[in-house]
């Protein structure tokens, strides 16, 4: 049985939380892809998000391994399953079967005081079933076949370029048999890539957490997902505290990226200076009020661009249902609540633009002219 993919909630009447974004339960502009770009371009801390994604992939690999192991037990001992023997029941009960929830922080549970979560049962099973060669699904299906290539030889593709149709991206593919050595290689890859001092993409974690993970993997030989729980919770809380509020402000309350906002501010200030220069020239050269009506154009452009910078929002683009991923790269807003929120802010922004524009233009058009 394959794990069902998370389904985005289109009926959400509130802003999403970080867990929903990481679980791919949201749509643009507050989806995981947008959050990845924000962490990369704005926060400059995409390594923390990549660590989360790699640990989640490690969890998915462990689940796939356990599913394959359960399937191999059923295929390899059909007479025991048919007879309902006690031995068959004991074998199957040691293999967790409820492995369909998306990976999340270990503390994210609606009932923390009740029975262990499926992640904890999965980790406990992997700790007790450490003989990878004996219990590997690849050996259960074909004793002479070779196991899958360890994942450490091919690091996880970037989230920006992953092809969802590739076998590596789909751990539920029947052809993608997972051996216990793959799980070990995946755990070591996370350790050597993000956690050890001087590693390629080292992230900052409390020393106690680093020591516990290093000891568990290198000395105790553990590779179950629970090894990374403390680090995963720490990274989740750090992103939730330091990065996610800014992400919501940028994407749920605005539709522009920082480079676009700076361009609008610069062009708006230049237009404002040009508008004032033109206005005073027309007044002190005693041009007619009809001629001075041309100042409406530069003032409108200037006020619109400066207001867009102030609100982090292009109101016309928002009313058209668009937003920016990166500079001049636009896409449709698909999250219904975000679309409604941006429409309200766009109408309010346009209202202020019209009020300020009318006030300034009336002031300089109707003021008496005097030739110097």
Can you describe this structure in just a few lines?
This protein has 372 residues and is mostly helical.
Write up what this structure looks like.
With 372 residues, the protein is mainly α. Helix content is 58%, strand content 2%. A two-stranded antiparallel sheet has the order 1-2. A hairpin with a 2-residue loop joins strand 1 and strand 2. The longest helix has 31 residues.
Number of strands: 2
What distance separates the N and C termini? 86 Å
The helix-strand sequence is HHHHHHHHHHHHHHHEEH
Compute the average pLDDT: 81
Q: How much of the residues is beta strand, in percent? A: under 5%
Question: Please, what is the oligomeric state?
Answer: single chain
Q: Major sheet: size, sense and barrel closure?
A: 2 strands, antiparallel
- Tally of separate helices: 16
Low-confidence stretches at least 5 residues in length (pLDDT < 50)? Answer: 85-93, 109-115, 132-136, 138-155, 160-175
Computed CA radius of gyration, to the nearest angstrom: 29 Å
Identify the overall geometry: elongated
Backbone structural class = mainly alpha
Helix content: 55-70%
Question: Going across the major beta sheet, what is the strand order?
Answer: 1-2
